[in-house]
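Deviation from plan, reported transparently: flavin-adenine dinucleotide complex.
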Amino acid sequence: MAAKHPELSALAVQLGEQWHGLLPGFHRLVFEGGHVLLTLCIGEVKVLLKEQSFEADSVYLAGVNWLQAPDICDPHLLTAVARCCRRGTRLASMMASKSVVDGLTQCGFEVSETTPMAPQGELLQASFNPRWEPKKSSAFNLPKPRSPARCIVLGAGLAGAACAASLARRGWQVTVLDAHAAAAGGASALPVGLLAPHVSPDDSMLSRLSRSGLRATWQVAKSQLEAAVDWQASGVLQRRFDTSAGLPKHWPEAGEHWSRLAGPDERQAVKAASSSADTGSENVTPALWHAAGGWIKPQRLVHALLATPGVNARYGVKIASLKRSSSAHPDGCWQVFDADGKAIAEAELLVLAAGFESAGLASTHAHLRLQAVRGQVTWGEVNDARALPPFPVNGHGSFIPAFLNDAGQPSWLMGATFERDNFRADVKVTDQLDIFGRLQQLLPHTAGALKASFDADLTRAWAGVRCVSPDRLPIVGPLDDAALPGLHACTALGSRGLSFAVLCGELLAAGLHAEPLPIEKRLAQSLLASRYHIAE
Ligand SMILES: Cc1cc2nc3c(=O)[nH]c(=O)nc-3n(C[C@H](O)[C@H](O)[C@H](O)COP(=O)(O)OP(=O)(O)OC[C@H]3O[C@@H](n4cnc5c(N)ncnc54)[C@H](O)[C@@H]3O)c2cc1C
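Because the crystal trials were delayed, the predicted structure below was used instead.
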């Protein structure tokens, strides 16, 4: 197409750069700094439309001719299209056959005209104006789309920064409040983190969510951060300590963009750093190559997101309570207070993105089931790169062999420990031993080379507190839209905040604006805080 239209070639290049890993399901491609969004849904149209949740301004029913789109008159399909329309939604199609016109009319469209358009045929134009009140299916989004107004985001970590950026891009005036003296002072102060897709034989929700999240994070990294300094899409090798590869059995070719069995080169490179036969021989545990993986610095990502026009951040502000007030604003608004009861800010929308502390903040209004999981990492400067693998390796812990620390020195990082129900981010000497033990198991040769640094205390440590939900999936969206309108959460990013944050920010904003969702509706609904109400 672009070859015939050279004026489109620059746009085709932009599209081509993101046109990869398109497995069945939803894919969100981002252009113009997030101002142009393309949601590609791959699969059977009828099924996919049920998984969407938006109100279209206009619809184009594609399919060049009847033979190429024989299903288009299926009443169920046209009903599914109508479900995505509001009164006044316009529709156009080059399929102007009588059966299409009849089908559309039955679904509530008024066909206004059909215009001959050589050489394609006739252009049909219609508008959605049913004689009945259109029924809205229960959806991820709010009953009626919100107009941008004021928003408070509590927390300037990955979750808060991502929500702030997504909302500000849609016109909200966002105030981010954080108790720390600067952005990314909590778990998002991790010096550098790993991005790798989750894999599972049944391609579970977590696996699909992690791929959508990775795509979203890399899009921001590539457009707003500095390659090789802030991030690197190096690929990640995952050592498996059982005999399963973990991949779905019938993994389509597009899946190889994400994850595949490690090839001889990748296994050989890690063999050198592990000095163990089991990554190289035939009858031993398999390793996976996550081609779409890499490392990224969370703080840089947070700063880039908070720099979005329309976001203002205030630091050193610890919020103790929240209250909904209907007197301050006709539609009601949320006020936040410090420990002395002093009102700090008010807004029509309040997003809790305060990690584990979101539960305490919400507690007088709603029950958020969150758990604190403390963790520690160790890092040091690289003295001899020959003992290190050429790319990050995960499995039993994770090792990042080469990133530049704040002083510009090439450094390595090994993580991480897990300690449930501890919400204190203090560094522990015992954790250093745990981390060294993990390194010995993951990469024995590298551990041998770094032992002297561990023994002589030449390494540095950092600890933080993760926030997890009972099913290890994030919590995103309204807490209870009927009883607590305007109160949302974005938290429980667990050990994958770098994969989830940007996607969750977009999901929260898409739901508020009745835009197409970046992930399947069922997946989005499984991230709502209310999922636990049903289970309880
Ligand atoms: C050891 C360790 C290793 C990790 N490794 C990885 C990795 O390799 N890859 C990966 O993707 N993820 C990793 N993670 C997870 C990742 O760091 C988190 O998922 C992510 O940082 C969570 O971001 P957040 O914004 O939800 O929370 P936070 O970054 O903790 O932000 C919450 C913010 O809320 C503020 N706040 C809390 N209460 C209040 C209040 N009352 N008033 C005002 N402000 C408040 C805090 O000050 C804080 O800044 C790791 C985490 C740890 C601990």
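The longest helix spans residues 205-224. We consider this an acceptable substitute for the interim report.
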